[in-house]
Amino acid sequence: MPDSNTDSLSILSDLIAQAKKAGADAADAVLVEGDSLSHGQRLGKLEKIERAEGKDLGLRVFVGQRSATVSSTDFKKDALREAVERAIAMAKLAPEDKYAGIADSSQLAKSWPEIDMLDPAEPTPEQLAERAGAMEEAALAVAGVSNSEGAEASWGRATVSLVTSAGFAGRYARSSQGVSVSVIAARDGEMETDYDYTSAVYAADLEDPALVGRRAGERTVRKLGPRKAKTAQVPILFEPRMARSLIGHLLGAITGPSVARGTSFLKDRLGQRIFAPGIAIIDDPHRTRGMRSKPFDGEGLANGRTEIIQDGVLTTWLLDLASARQLGLTSTGHAGRGTGGPPSPTSSNTHLAAGTMTPQQLMADIEQGFYVTEMMGHGANMVTGDYSRGAAGYWIEKGEIAYPVSEITIAGNLKDMFLDLTPADDLVFKGSTDAPTVRIDGMTVAGS
Predict the structure, then answer these.
(1) Domain end call among 188, 222, 256
(2) Does residue 18 sit within a domain?
(3) Are residues 388 and 285 in the same domain?
């Protein structure tokens, strides 16, 4: 495995030189090197301990407006030569795509920031076992918890190198680690299950596993004895880990390919208000210790903080070079890249900015409402915005959590939901997409 910046970039540079010599008009190549370690246990007994190391290379070549991508995990000279030959042959048979192509030299990033996103310390298997054990033990200690579905602690490190025939060569590395547990509570012949987790780039930023474990146990026990809810139109609160899915639907609707194909319910809304005044949604690939931080995008373009929603107004699409050309626009530096195919636009670290009220204050005036802690299914139509998902959580009465409810459906339309959304002040950065608790009025709860 390449063990230095020079090694990985040299491999890619040599590969591109071979592709150009073999007849490619342009080419780019990406090398992903990864290491991971995970520990899994159940009821204190080891179920797995796994370590993986690997590297994967992807080469994209262009012959005129025709292109092809090949990938390889074999870095022998003969294997790479065959990969180049195969890519050129495939490209000559591919259909022409007038929007495809690498960035020219004037578009490429000439410098990029150093981002704190790599914990240099690799945990030992014993440290992972200690984290998982502390989390599971704390969850099982909660009164009412009867069993465990298991606890897992993991660590990973990925290094990404990118070289293009237009003169770009860059590399970055980042780490991630997390601990999670899922437990079961039982009462009167009924069982409920729930989970909790903590994740971060640095081990020092993980929450105390025992605290998270206790929270998982308490969440599970609170779900016992659920009731049915009657069909009604009521205010709905989404807890943070449910609210972030709403931001995911927004991101899916504003990617360049969806807009260019006309398959997005927001395809005509650029520059228009789609959230209430004051709402901000930010994508920031340069966030310190961000779970998906990166110093440049997957095509070698500069990237940076983008306020996707500014004062409730949609300010931009998420574009790579191909979708930008198709829309007659400029790339926004949101290209993501794997080794098995061409780039495509993607977000990085995205969050809904916190509001000014606590979740309790958001709930205070609700006579009858629903607090969502779990959702099932994928009932969002990205063409129309229609939204319908199975859900469970807690019924709200007179501004307070009253009792657990399950087996209901929540429905609305994302266009209306976005406009009616109010964020609370409890934003915590835990993943690549984050949101505080949010309240949405006027949705339908379909129950008994």
Answers:
(1) 222
(2) no
(3) yes
The sign of the dihedral angle between the CA atoms of 210, 212, 216, 219 is positive
Say whether both 249 and 349 belong to one domain. Answer: yes
Residue 404 lies in a domain: yes
**What backbone phi and psi angles, to 5 degrees, belong to 375?**
-135, 150
Residue-wise pLDDT tens digits, 196-217: 999 999 999 999 999 999 999 9
Q: Is residue 33 part of a domain?
A: no
pLDDT tens, 78-117? 999 999 999 999 999 999 999 999 999 999 999 999 999 9
Same domain, 212 and 232: no
SS3 of the chain = CCCCHHHHHHHHHHHHHHHHHCCCCEEEEEEEEEEEEEEEEECCEEEEEEEEEEEEEEEEEEECCEEEEEEECCCCHHHHHHHHHHHHHHHHHCCCCCCCCCCCCCCECCCCCCCCCCCCCCCCHHHHHHHHHHHHHHHHCCCCEEEEEEEEEEEEEEEEEEEECCCCEEEEEEEEEEEEEEEEEEECCEEEEEEEEEEECCHHHCCCHHHHHHHHHHHHHHCCCCECCCCEEEEEEECHHHHHHHHHHHHHHCEHHHHHHCCCCCCCCCCCECCCCCCCEEECCCCCCCCCCCCECCCCEECCCEEEEECCEECCCECCHHHHHHHCCCCCCCEECCCCCCCEECCCCEEECCCCECHHHHHCCCCEEEEEEEEECCCECCCCCEEEEEEEEEEEECCEEEEEEEEEEEEEEHHHHHHCEEEECCCCCCCCEECCCEEEEEEEEECC
User: Which domain does 435 fall in, by range?
Assistant: 226-448
Pairing verdict, β 45-63 and 26-42: antiparallel
pLDDT of residue 447: 83
- The verdict on residue 88 lying in a domain is no
Cα dihedral 434→435→437→443 (10° resolution): -120
The model's pLDDT over 274-304, given as tens digits with 9 standing for 90+, comes to 999 999 999 999 999 999 999 999 999 999 9
